[in-house]
Amino acid sequence: MSYSTYNRNKGGGGSPYFNSKIWLIAGGLFLFYPYILKYMKRAQTNMNASDIQNNLNNSNLTPGTVSNALDNITTNRNLQNDAYNIAHHLGTLYSVWDYRSWTENDKEAYEVLSKYRPIPMELQEAYFIITGGKKLRDDVNRLLDSEYRGRLLW
């Protein structure tokens, strides 16, 4: 067996087979890198959301513990009531199976939100506690009609 036959059969050195494998792997990584990165970011945010849910322990929140948590944020009852009203009018206060969560009262939600220019952080935190970990800005952008959303100053 000669040396050239050995290299041809084993695919060693600079054979075309070896080079094509490297180019396929490099090309695949180049093409799928954005999707892999997107998946990793989504996995990280899902982990953070689950950590928040575990920290709040929302399944065991009673009205007394919610009230205590809201008092730790702010003692202003008007602000707490407005957070409840926003959650009620957007339908996020209720479970998915509750008929009250199927529609939004956009006008009433806008009237409550328009009292505050800009939206105070205490209201956003109170909404977060009341709804069990939902963000006010995300819910307003997702659920409020564009005519009312455009009037709000975020």
Structural class determined from secondary elements: mainly alpha
The parts where pLDDT drops under 50 for at least 5 residues are none
Individual helix count:
8
The description of the largest β-sheet is:
none
- Order of secondary-structure elements: HHHHHHHH
What is the global morphology? elongated
Q: Quick one: how many beta strands?
A: 0
Percentage of helical residues?
A: 55-70%
Beta-strand percentage? under 5%
The overall average pLDDT, rounded, is 78
Global Rg: 27 Å
Which SSEs are present, and which pair or pack?
Elements lengths: L2 H8 L5 H41 L6 H11 L3 H14 L15 H8 L7 H11 L4 H8 L2 H4 L5
Helix pairs in contact: 3-6, 4-5, 4-6
Q: Notable features of this structure?
A:
elongated; 0% strand; 8 helices; 154 residues; 68% helix; single chain; mainly alpha
Tell me what the structure shows.
- The chain is mostly helical.
- It contains eight helices and no strands.
- It has helices spanning 3-10, 16-56, 63-73, 77-90, 106-113, 121-131, 136-143, 146-149.
- α3 (63-73) runs antiparallel to α6 (121-131), α4 runs antiparallel to α5 and α4 packs across α6 (121-131).
- It is elongated.
Short overview:
By secondary structure, the chain is mainly α. Helices cover 68% and strands 0% of the residues.
